[in-house]
Amino acid sequence: MSSEDNRKLVRRFIEKVNERDYEALDDLLAPDFVRHCQATPDVDVRSSQDFKQFDRTSRESFPDQRIVIDRLIAEGDFVACWCRYLGTQRGPMGPLPASGKQVDVDFGGCFRVANGRLAEAWVTWDNVTLLKQLGHLPAPQPS
Length: 143
Description:
Elements: H1 3-19, H2 22-28, E1 29-36, H3 48-61, E2 66-75, E3 78-88, E4 102-114, E5 117-125, H4 127-133
Helix pairs in contact: 1-2
């Protein structure tokens, strides 16, 4: 596949995640898809099925979650993205209760394509900003 084909694959993946079209993800993700993310160290995604379950669980906290692509850059088998994650916390997030607040945070990612499917992803974002927007971290107090 060309770099442009790989860009289109990532764009289609994000569209299908936004649409909650889990059946379409079967054609976009390798069966042994792996997601790496230091921001969520307890989340272990080692298959396309794991990813779909991860997304379903995330939607329990943020039912209106949406990803907006700002940039997609492709080179060879890799596609880098800079995106925004938007959503309203309507359910608990781990031990944190639903805040009802909206979040709008930037995140970066890199995807590896193999055999026409997404085989691997690395994702990162600023958890402090996310938790502050949700009201789960107090603002620093003036000295």
